Amino acid sequence: MHSTPPARTAPPQRLTWQQRLSRADVRYSPYAYVAPFFILFALVGMFPLVYTFVVALNDWNLLTGPGEWVGLANFQRELTDPLFWNSLFNTFSIFLLSAIPQLIAAVAIAAILDQNLRAKTFWRLSVIVPYVVTPVAVTLIFSNVFGEKYGLVNNVLQYIGMDPVMWKTETLPSHLAIAAMVNWRWTGYNALILLAAMQAVPRELYESAAIDGAGAVRRFFSITIPSIRPTMIFVIITATIGGLQIFTEPKLFNAASSVPGGPQRQYQTTVLYLWDLAFNRQQFGRAAAVAWILFLLIVLIGLINFQISRRIASASAPRAKARKRKALR
User: Fold this and answer.
1) What is the dihedral sign for C-alpha 63, 68, 69, 73?
2) pLDDT digit string (tens) for 242-268?
3) pLDDT tens digits, residue range 175-202?
4) Residue 110 neighbours by CB under 8 Å, 6+ apart
5) Strand, coil or helix: what is 4?
6) How far is CA 160 from CA 28, 154, 156, 229, 281, in A?
């Protein structure tokens, strides 16, 4: 018997330059598309964050630069400083007085704008006008409106027989005045975001609920609110970040005060306290420590909001699916 010679395997075909380029394009082009974001984030986000932490570990001076290495002493000093805790209390007080009414008003305005109104475009544009106005102009206007001697609000209160309120001297009135500025500027902006979410809700759900006899209020709380919950969570998180970083409104509320945040620091927020440490008292190490503590607080609150939203979403998902199946029948 003659053995058959083994079949020769064809040599691997070499890829042309265009084929190699096409394969590299498919493999690496997605990374090239997203790389500008990460490069920009590293330059304007991550690097300042790391550099601020380095500053917090030193007795830093604006002119001479890094001084004595103090480690975590700046953090320990701030956590035992009554002025820091006072600023943190003022920040959360103003935040709660502004965020809660702001969210309620934004949902109500969005629900009204979601109806069949005449001149809908005009009304939707009008609610965004306060956001267009610069914060400095808003603060100066409200500072005069809440003036203690000749302010518009106190003049109205005296006209109806009430005593004037010390808006720039007492703690709670000053917090209410600053919260009014924040609400006036941001309510319309958040209302438009919620309006966009409301318009994405399928109309078949409302029609099915109306056929079953549900009124407008019942449809709003049973269909609209659960359907826009992810957008509401986004609004809450962004309002939390902005509220804990409030600076312009308390800084310019009483420009004549020699102490930032009022004579007794009764409305000195954490960012305003940070600014006072850095640029008035030249204690950049302590200011950087305050910045990092505030950053960690914002991250912690964001994680708490995320966990709460996940639990609410997982609990409401079966009910939402049941409503959609019922509407499509």
Assistant:
1) negative
2) 889 999 889 888 877 778 888 889 999
3) 999 999 999 989 999 999 999 999 888 8
4) 191, 192, 194, 195, 198
5) coil
6) 72, 10, 6, 42, 45
